[in-house]
Design a protein that fits this description.
about 600 residues; alpha+beta; Creatine Amidinohydrolase, Chain A, domain 1; Creatine Amidinohydrolase; 3 domains; six-stranded mixed beta sheet; 28 strands; about 35% helix; about 20% strand
């Protein structure tokens, strides 16, 4: 395999032959997905950086990677000697991607990118930059594809039907609901490109992205018809027939572009250009009226129905049982049985595989010991793997897909003696998590209103963590799902600022990360519920879904006020009540001690 410097040289040769001054390579497929299949890992190919977020920019003389704080340490290590410079997004003095492009693009210059991997809304920003320099865009070629000799083919995993006993609503019912929203928007057609939304709407799942059970496809909906553009070999005949009974016709995946060209002038098309790719947006004929707004399916799938909630509670109970078994195993065997980050992660995966209804991990497990815990999205490799010792902290962020739902949980575990500094930081993180978990608020609040509850214990000490406090979670879909989330400011590449609706599930995951020392994160999932309604309005609260204790070996009660101690004790009582019946006697005895009142 060629080196990154050689690939950059090959790309620059193609750029020069086309008069392209700057080439942009985002982390993207043709659908705006957060995670992408192997075929679409062009940014990883051209930079060597394997993280799930980032954008590469290549000029004739320079190459840069923009990524966020979750990946600073990882990117710094992986870009060494690559010829690619790391630009730490959000850091003081670091130019934004747009600022860099404006500075480097010469008068009359050209910005290039594959128009299928950049959204319609993103393209507008690039076009303005080019227009300001009286330049142009080149968007019709995939230059990475020209130099990537052994590129993996497009994924085409087998499609399977997701049963009504877990989905709660039929495909026909969901299509009816979408058409009602189309009517409200005055739309004649709806072009849907989000893989998560299509899978939810059609009650299908697949395997076209690692850890995300979706199907590479597009969907076009009118008042009478529904066309699914999909690789037909991926769809079993019985599923095609089942969908046909709902009026859904299958057409080849790439036919979507020809289909869009046939839309008549004057027709009103509902499409979210924040996720639909530019090639598709630009194919709309002149005279078509674009209704550019969030896909109706996005808030629909975010607010889980009662069937989904019943199923996901069961999934979380299974997850609580296996995580308690895992922590018990760690505590009992550390220092007695040789173990490393990778072997501990593998053991957790073995436990998960034994749980009824387990399908897959919902993301690659993060298992970071000591300094590795400070790397927010650390992934152990044979080169970085280290032995676990009976001292210090181990951070384990893991999640699973069960047939009845998706989980995401982080626990930081004391493997032996910990320092006073570690206890102080751990207690701060626990306070932050509990403050948000036990929130009571009026309907109409978004996660931006509530984020201060988690950050308060940090900000009062002049501290912070450089990631969102929480994200929405899909139902056997993407573990990171909008439009709900907890964050204190808007991010240009995220839309997690929606009003918190009943049925939305969001993670609660504050943390602290000390480079070269340790990291601490505690993550629960919380379900938004309606509380009392009175003269002040509709009050809301969160139901906790995650039943795994916070490590009392790291708690410093003197740092907590009475209400915080009461919350911790109440949470631990729930954990013991829910999980202990499913444990072996010695495990239950350990859990009783691990959840004792303080």
């Amino acid at each position: 395999m060629s080196s990154v410097p050689q690939r950059l040289s090959d790309l620059r040769r193609e750029m020069k032959s086309r008069g392209i001054d700057i080439y942009v390579v985002p982390t993207a497929d043709f659908h705006g997905s957060e995670y992408v299949g192997e075929h679409f890992k062009a940014r990883q190919f051209i930079t060597g950086f394997t993280g799930s977020a980032g954008t590469a920019v290549i000029t004739a003389e320079e190459a840069g990677l923009w990524t966020d704080a979750r990946y600073f340490l990882q990117a710094d290590a992986q870009l060494k000697d690559s010829g690619v410079t790391l630009y730490r997004m959000g850091e003081e003095g670091v130019p934004t991607l747009q600022e860099f492009l404006a500075d480097k693009l010469p008068q009359g210059g050209c910005i290039g990118f594959d128009g299928r991997t950049v959204s319609g809304s993103e393209e507008r920003a690039y076009r303005k930059l080019a227009d300001d320099k009286k330049g142009r865009l080149s968007v019709d070629e995939d230059l990475i594809g020209l130099i990537w000799a052994d590129r993996p083919p497009l994924p085409a995993g087998k499609v399977w039907r997701y049963g009504i006993e877990y989905a709660g609503r039929t495909t026909a019912e969901k299509l009816t609901a979408v058409r009602k929203e189309m009517e409200k928007a005055g739309a004649d057609r709806h072009i849907l490109t989000s893989l998560y939304d299509i899978a939810w709407l059609l009650n299908v799942r697949g395997s076209d992205i690692a850890f995300v059970p979706v199907v590479l496809s597009y969907l076009a909906i009118t008042k009478e018809a529904c066309i699914w553009f999909v690789q037909k070999e991926a769809v079993p005949e019985e599923i095609a027939a089942d969908l046909g009974a709902c009026g859904i016709v299958l057409r080849p995946y790439n036919d979507i572009y020809d289909y869009v060209k046939t839309i008549r002038a004057g027709e009103k098309v509902l499409m979210d250009t924040g996720s639909a790719n530019y090639r598709l947006c630009s194919t709309l004929p002149a005279g078509v009226v674009l209704r550019d707004q969030m896909n109706p399916t996005t808030p629909m799938k975010a607010a889980k129905n009662e069937t989904e909630l019943k199923a996901t509670r069961n999934a979380h109970l299974k997850d609580g049982v296996l995580m308690c078994k895992f922590i018990y195993w760690l505590k009992r065997n550390i220092g007695k049985v040789p173990m490393t980050e990778i072997s501990a992660s593998d053991y957790l995966a073995e436990l998960a595989a034994k749980q009824p209804g387990f399908l897959d991990l919902s993301f690659g497990t993060i298992c970071g010991y000591g300094p590795h815990g400070a790397i927010i999205h650390y992934g152990a490799t044979p080169e970085t793997d280290v032995p676990l010792k009976p001292e210090g902290l181990l951070l384990v962020d893991s999640g699973r897909h069960y047939i009845d739902g998706t989980t995401d949980i982080t626990r930081t575990i004391a493997l032996g003696p910990v320092t006073a500094e570690m206890k102080a930081d751990f207690t701060r993180v626990a306070r932050a998590n509990l403050n948000l978990m036990y929130a009571r608020f009026l309907y109409g609040c978004s996660g931006m209103n509530l984020d201060i509850l988690a950050r308060g214990p940090f900000w009062e000490a002049g501290l912070d963590f450089k990631h969102g406090t929480g994200h929405g979670i899909g139902h056997l879909l993407n573990v990171h799902e909008g439009p709900n989330g907890f964050r204190w400011r808007r991010s240009p590449d995220r839309s997690e600022h929606a009003v918190l609706e009943e049925g939305m599930i969001t993670s609660d995951e504050p943390g602290i990360y000390l480079e070269g020392k340790y990291g601490i994160r505690l993550e629960n999932e919380v379900l938004c519920r309606k509380g009392e309604k009175n003269e002040y309005g509709q009050f809301m609260y969160f139901e906790n879904l995650t039943y795994v204790p916070f490590d009392l070996d790291c708690i410093e009660p003197e740092q907590m006020d009475r209400s915080e101690i009461r919350r911790l004790n109440d949470f631990h009582a729930q954990v013991y009540e829910k999980v202990s019946p499913y444990l072996e006697p010695e495990e239950a005895a350990w859990l009783k001690e691990a959840t004792r009142p303080i």
